[in-house]
Amino acid sequence: MTTPLHRGLRHLALRVLDLPRSRRFYEQLLGFQSVWEPDPENIYFSSGVDNLALHQISKTELDSYDASKTQLLDHMGVILDSPQAVDQLYQHIVPKITPMGGRITKEPKQHRDGSYSFYFADPDGNQIQALYEPTISGLKWVNSKG
């Protein structure tokens, strides 16, 4: 097997209908801990090994929300070891993504919380964030094969 290009799907972002209700659910039921709250519409959690972002659906979208026509998944994320690894994956993906039916949706960017990422879409439009996230990128993963 070749060296993996990332460290796994350790980041998930969900759009939610009621942020306080969803916060209680993930904190009280699943034990997630808040690691960053940049504003009243967003909260970022960690389980210690994973990162979960909850994004409040805007008032405009909420007024016309129809569960049968709208997906709540905002994006999924693959974790990388460093900002340099994010840039390396970006350079790896750029020449290959368009012929495979995908596209780059956001260029590499440094975020306010110290993370660094870029976004790309699969052929069905699902957003994927290639992410260096300081609280989990440096964790050592247990190999399930021993």
In the CATH hierarchy, what is the class?
Alpha Beta
The overall strand count is 8
Question: H/E element string?
Answer: EHEEEHEHEEE
- Which strand-content bin applies to the residues? 25-35%
- Name the CATH homologous superfamily: 2,3-Dihydroxybiphenyl 1,2-Dioxygenase, domain 1
Return the CATH topology.
2,3-Dihydroxybiphenyl 1,2-Dioxygenase, domain 1
Ranges with pLDDT <50 over ≥5 residues? none
Structural class by SSE content: alpha+beta
Overall outline: globular
- Terminal residue distance: 16 Å
Helix content: 10-25%
Tally of helical runs: 3
Mean pLDDT: 87
- For the record, the CATH architecture stands as Roll
How do the strands of the widest beta sheet line up side by side? 2-3-4-1-5-8-7-6
What is the gyration radius calculated from CA atoms? 16 Å
Largest sheet features: 8 strands, mixed
Number of domains: 1
